[in-house]
Specification:
- By secondary structure, the protein is of the alpha/beta class.
- It folds into two domains: 190 residues, Rossmann fold; 190 residues, Rossmann fold.
- The protein is 38% helix and 19% strand.
- It has 16 helices and 17 strands.
- It has a seven-stranded parallel beta sheet with strand order 5-2-1-8-9-10-11, sandwiched between helices. Strands 14-13-12-15-16-17 form a six-stranded parallel beta sheet, sandwiched between helices. The protein has a two-stranded antiparallel ribbon with strand order 3-4.
- The longest helix is centred in the middle third of the chain and has 15 residues.
- The chain is elongated, with a radius of gyration of 22 Å.
- It starts with a strand and ends with a helix.
Length: 388
C-alpha cells in the first residue's frame, strides 16, 4: 500500500475541529506547525477589548509543533513573530505537501519559496474575497502585479466559499487548481449543545428577565464598527409601534468591543429594557443563546466568512446577513433559511426583522430548513477535498 501523504500545515491560529477530522484520515499524515501559541492560551483580543481564553480543547486529536521564533509572540503581524527552523522541518520530515493559511505573514512567503526549491507541493487556503478589496488604487495595482506571480507558485487552492473562489479566479488562478473546502464548524458539537440548551431554555429566559412568548433577536460577534451592530439597533428601533414604545421582540447583544459604549448610550436615551448587552460568552456557552433566539443577525460591512452563521444554523435558527458577509452565497437561501440584505440598508433590515418577528412560525420553519443545507456547511466536504 502507498504510504500516507506527509502534510505540513503552517498556520497562525487553531482550527481544531477541522484538524482532528483531517488527522483521522488514514491516507494523510498531518503535522500542524503553529507560528505562535497566541490563540491556544490566554491572550489579549483587541477586537473584544479584553483577555480571552477559549474553554474548549484546542490541541487534542492531531500532531502539532510550535515553531521557534525571535522576539515577542504577543501579537501577529507580517513581521511578528519571526519564525525559524521551518526549512529544517520540511527537509527532515520528508514532507510531500505544504499547506499554508493565507499569505500575509513573512514566514508563509518564505515557506512557499522553500517548498518549491525542494519539490514540495504547496496548497493555499485563505479568506480573501473581492467585496473586501482595498479602495486604494495604488494597493490594487500592486496586488494585480504581485498576486498572479505569487499564485503561480501554488499548486492548489482550497476555496472557503463561492466569493473566495471568484477572488482566486480574478487573479488568474485556473479552475482546475481550485478545490472547494468550505469554512465549517464542529456541527455535532453545536447541535448537541443546542439540544442540551433546549431543555433549559425557559430557565435562561427567566434568568435574563425576558417575558414568555416574546420573540428574541440575537447578535453574537465582536462589537466593532465594521460589523455594524449599530445598524441592527437602528433597525430594531424601527419596530417600535409609535417610535417611543418598546418593540415586542427582545434584542440581545452577545460580545464586547469598541462600539458597546456608544450602543448602550443610545439605548439609555430610549429608556427601553428590551435591549440587553450580555458581554463576552465563551464557546461552550454560546449555544444557549443561539437556542434562545428566533432570528440571528450578522450586519457586517466586511466579513471574510462569518462562522457565527454556521453556529446559529446548527441551532436551527433563521439568519439575516448582509451581502458583504462571505458565507451569504453558500449558506443563505433567500426566503428558505434566511435573508440577505444590502449592507448598511437599515430600512431593509428592519423590514426583514419585522417579517420574521411578527410571524414566529415562519422563522421557526426557516430555521429548521437548515437541515437541507448541512452538506454546504459540513466538515465532510473538507474531508472529501483531501480525498481528491
Amino acid at each position: 500500500m502507498r504510504r500516507p501523504y506527509r502534510l505540513a500545515y503552517l498556520v497562525s491560529h487553531h482550527q481544531a475541529p477541522l484538524l482532528r477530522q483531517i488527522a483521522a484520515l488514514p491516507e494523510v499524515d498531518l503535522t500542524v506547525l503553529f507560528m505562535s501559541d497566541l490563540s491556544v492560551r490566554e491572550f489579549w483580543d483587541p477586537g473584544f477589548g479584553r483577555r480571552i481564553e477559549w474553554d474548549v480543547p484546542l490541541l487534542n486529536g492531531y500532531r502539532y509543533e510550535f515553531l521557534p521564533a525571535l522576539g515577542p509572540r504577543n501579537r501577529l503581524s507580517f513581521w511578528r513573530p519571526i519564525n525559524y527552523r521551518l526549512r529544517r522541518f520540511l527537509t527532515k520530515k520528508h514532507v510531500d505537501v505544504l499547506w499554508v493559511h493565507g499569505y500575509s505573514h513573512n514566514v508563509v512567503l518564505r515557506a512557499i519559496l522553500c517548498a518549491k526549491r525542494r519539490g514540495i507541493k504547496v496548497i493555499l487556503r485563505g479568506e480573501s474575497h473581492l467585496l473586501s478589496e482595498t479602495a486604494s488604487p495604488v494597493k490594487l495595482r500592486l496586488k494585480k502585479l504581485v498576486l498572479p506571480r505569487l499564485f503561480r507558485l501554488v499548486d492548489g487552492f482550497l476555496a472557503i466559499g463561492t466569493l473566495n473562489r471568484e477572488y482566486y479566479q480574478c487573479y488568474g488562478v485556473p479552475n482546475h487548481k481550485i478545490f472547494m473546502m468550505p469554512y465549517a464548524v464542529d456541527n455535532a458539537f453545536f447541535q448537541r449543545k443546542a439540544r442540551e440548551a433546549r431543555t433549559h431554555r425557559e430557565e435562561l429566559r427567566a434568568e435574563l428577565g425576558l417575558e414568555p412568548g416574546r420573540p428574541v433577536v440575537l447578535y453574537a460577534s465582536k462589537l466593532q464598527r465594521h460589523k455594524r451592530p449599530g445598524d441592527l439597533l437602528e433597525a430594531y428601533i424601527k419596530l417600535s409601534p409609535d417610535g417611543s414604545r418598546e418593540p415586542r421582540p427582545y434584542l440581545l447583544f452577545v460580545g464586547e468591543g469598541e462600539e458597546r459604549q456608544r450602543l448602550e448610550e443610545r439605548v439609555r436615551g430610549l429608556a427601553w429594557r428590551s435591549v440587553l448587552f450580555l458581554g463576552f460568552k465563551n464557546q461552550s456557552e454560546l449555544a444557549r443563546y443561539y437556542d434562545l433566539c428566533d432570528v440571528f443577525v450578522l450586519p457586517s460591512a466586511k466579513e471574510p466568512w462569518g462562522l457565527v452563521v454556521n453556529e446559529a444554523m446548527n441551532a436551527a435558527k433563521a439568519v439575516l446577513v448582509t451581502d458583504r458577509v462571505g458565507c451569504a452565497p453558500d449558506l443563505v437561501r433567500e426566503g428558505i433559511n434566511g435573508f440577505v440584505y444590502p449592507a448598511g440598508d437599515v430600512p431593509a433590515l428592519a423590514e426583514k426583522l419585522r417579517r420574521l418577528t411578527e410571524d414566529p412560525e415562519t422563522a421557526r420553519r426557516m430555521g429548521e430548513d437548515f437541515a437541507s443545507l448541512t452538506g454546504g456547511i459540513s466538515m465532510q466536504m473538507s474531508e472529501d477535498c483531501w480525498r481528491r
